[in-house]
Amino acid sequence: MGTTRPTTSARRRAWRPVLAAVLSTGLLATSWQAFSAEAATGPAGSGAGPLTARLSGDGAARAHDGDPDTYAKGSAAHWVQADLGATRRLDRVELALPGKAQQVQLQGSVNGRDFVELSDSRARQGHVTLRLDGAPVRYVRVAGAQRVGELSLFPATSGDTAPPGAPRNVRLDGATLRWEQVPGASGYDVYADGRLRAGLPATATRWQDTTAPGGTTHRTTYTVRARDAAGNQSPDGRTATRTVAAGTGSSRAAFTPSPAKPAPQPRRAGARATTGATMPYTTVEAESGAIGGGAQVVGPNRRIGDVAGEASGRKAVTLKQTGQYVEFTTPVETNTLVTRFSIPDAPGGGGTNAKLNVYVNGQKTKPFDLTSRYAWLYGPEAAPVNDPGAGPARHIYDEAQLDLGRTVPAGSKVRLQKDADSPSTYAVDFVDFEKAAAAPNPDRRAFVEPAGFGHQDVQNALDRARMDTTGTIKGVYLPPGDYRTSSKFQVYLKPVKVIGAGPWFTRFHAPAGQQNTDVGFRAADGADGSTFAGFAYFGNYTSRIDGPGKVFDFQHISGITIENIWAEHMVCLYWGADTDRMTIRNNRIRNTFADGLNMTNGSSDNLVTDNEARATGDDSFALFSALDSGGGEQTHNVYENLTAKLTWRAAGLAVYGGQLNTFRNVRVVDTLVYSGVTISSLDFGIPMNGFGPGRTTFENLGIERAGGHFWNGQTFPGIWLYSASKPFRAIRVNGATITDPTYHGIMFQTNYVGQQPQNPVQDTELSDVTVSGAKKSGDEYNERSGFGVWANEAAGGPAVGQAAFHRLTLRDNAQNIRNTTSTFKITVD
């Protein structure tokens, strides 16, 4: 649908600077609320004109002054940004990009810190209109552009477009934050020092934060925002500041919901596309690059053990003859390069090594050193081994990294080429571009450094920080270097900050001559409040071993931050049993042999945000409300802004029991054998809490090309709802888009024991769900494929219970709804 460009006078009125003194580069304070974000000419949502906003950037006033010859200046690192003052649902953004084409991406945020992609990043020029289809954002950033003029943001024109009012009478009563209910609000978001701490239902009027900051007194500033069911978020309520004494507080931040019945939620319109995690690198698929010399794009297909079937987007580029290449135009400035690749295994297993040459703007640079040692498993699907004689292959890809040694400008040509000195054959899946810089020691007086790069050097530095009695040493700084480690580091008796120079620079390596070495960190006995940030762990695992192999293996501990960690060739990044108030953010998890991250045994009040997992060997992000290692109910966890790609065993997101937990803005792409999202009450023979009575909420799920077959031929969907050995109830899915599933979009299933069903599906509602492209598979599972929504009538017995859909959209499926059971009821309104 076309749009008309607003008049110059209307645009000038809309974008007249409100506080000209603040038009400088950098982020805007999230607590600013000094104007009303109303449409310039007409009520909100009327479409009569752009929204009023506040601009920042170099010469930001020129980004909308009505003069087409003037513009604000930006760059890849300094952007032009607009603040609407409150989260609004947007229909589109219009802007002028004068001069030659510029590499531009639109980014959005609700808090001014955590930005997600609202558009692709590509060359644009002239007058540009970017459709947002109702995306709820407060901050809009034009990233990468050198010149930005005539910037206009237009509200959504249908559905609920007006934000609710800000919460009133926000105040602190000891450790309890209180406020008054806002008419029409469907929930509240609580922020502490600008970071989201809790997402609460419409009945909430209080939230208790009894967290301890660790070894020092800390002042925390809280804000509360109301949100409605459409995603609109209010301006901040008045702030409240609390001083928390060192070491005080309990192991929980608590919210007790009112027993009152929640208000009915209005229809959502134009829910935004899921973007998942915001990461510092830009990924480009090989099939979108330029190929030459006879290189071929292969795929798409969904075959296990095939270079297309196991690739992102189910396509790859193969380089088999000398001179074949794939070439990328860099969308951003970069000094590093990552590629996902597949090269052959050795005939007897154990991997081969190869080099793949890299050219930058026609000049040969350092090559990739590749190995297939950590790929190629064979035989039993649930427990494959490193033996080609055991059966068919799977898990055939790995990744490699390269420091280019110089900064390569955006728009450069980076080529991967098979030359005469590269005897192997190659499949290239994608590349990452990232400009990385080493972070210095934040304070040489407060952060000690190891004497060397050996394991004992680091442990000695940790011990020195632990034994400090002066109060001046806060932790350990790990300078750039390759660190050798062969066991777990121990942190205990006091909190410590372990800070590296960044994961491209501070890198731990398990012994090269070994395999399956248990390396990483353990923290216990008083280490609550520690921080681990800015380093990488490259393990030597070649197969799954349950028990060891977690970089962070924590129990009965709280208040720890794990940030900006790169973990690869390990079993897991994080396993937490009875761990509370953890913050796990901005991490990259790659090529593991089990879960990327799992919270279990009563772990509560945790925030897992902006993490990307690629090619994990079990659930990428999991919550398992087990009881075998301590802890109780598992509540008030928030998993948000997550991306799971290419999970090769199990699901991208899996939730097993618990209550009052929230999972939102999660993107799952290309699972190999399993569901994109698993919601299951199966206890695996371990003591466990089922779901409820408090709700488990899923919001804004994006699931692409997910599903597969596993467990001796069972087929799996985009979203799998499995009622089993524990209660299955109080499930809410609010916003999900399932595209091109391998077999079916949504499947309900019930576990049977002795031909008797276990717990039924109860109190389960799915709203604003779209399933498209569920086709007949054409393989041996063809008769069990092509269903948009399926109440499974087989698999031990028919599904039992009922579920309600509100605003269900089904299109381009072989069969929209299949329910031949008499035991399961599907209601659609």
Automatic annotation (TrEMBL):
<dbReference type="Pfam" id="PF00754">
    <property type="entry name" value="F5_F8_type_C"/>
</dbReference>
<dbReference type="InterPro" id="IPR006626">
    <property type="entry name" value="PbH1"/>
</dbReference>
<feature type="domain" description="F5/8 type C">
    <location>
        <begin position="59"/>
        <end position="146"/>
    </location>
</feature>
<dbReference type="Pfam" id="PF22815">
    <property type="entry name" value="CatAgl_D1"/>
</dbReference>
<dbReference type="InterPro" id="IPR011050">
    <property type="entry name" value="Pectin_lyase_fold/virulence"/>
</dbReference>
<feature type="region of interest" description="Disordered">
    <location>
        <begin position="40"/>
        <end position="69"/>
    </location>
</feature>
<dbReference type="InterPro" id="IPR008979">
    <property type="entry name" value="Galactose-bd-like_sf"/>
</dbReference>
<dbReference type="Pfam" id="PF22816">
    <property type="entry name" value="CatAgl_D2"/>
</dbReference>
<protein>
    <submittedName>
        <fullName>Discoidin domain-containing protein</fullName>
    </submittedName>
</protein>
<dbReference type="InterPro" id="IPR013783">
    <property type="entry name" value="Ig-like_fold"/>
</dbReference>
<dbReference type="InterPro" id="IPR055149">
    <property type="entry name" value="Agl_cat_D2"/>
</dbReference>
<feature type="compositionally biased region" description="Low complexity">
    <location>
        <begin position="40"/>
        <end position="53"/>
    </location>
</feature>
<feature type="compositionally biased region" description="Low complexity">
    <location>
        <begin position="237"/>
        <end position="249"/>
    </location>
</feature>
<dbReference type="InterPro" id="IPR012334">
    <property type="entry name" value="Pectin_lyas_fold"/>
</dbReference>
<feature type="signal peptide">
    <location>
        <begin position="1"/>
        <end position="36"/>
    </location>
</feature>
<keyword id="KW-0732">Signal</keyword>
<feature type="region of interest" description="Disordered">
    <location>
        <begin position="227"/>
        <end position="274"/>
    </location>
</feature>
<feature type="domain" description="Alpha-1,3-glucanase catalytic">
    <location>
        <begin position="457"/>
        <end position="811"/>
    </location>
</feature>
<feature type="domain" description="CBM6/CBM35/CBM36-like 1">
    <location>
        <begin position="279"/>
        <end position="435"/>
    </location>
</feature>
<dbReference type="InterPro" id="IPR033801">
    <property type="entry name" value="CBM6-CBM35-CBM36-like_1"/>
</dbReference>
<dbReference type="InterPro" id="IPR000421">
    <property type="entry name" value="FA58C"/>
</dbReference>
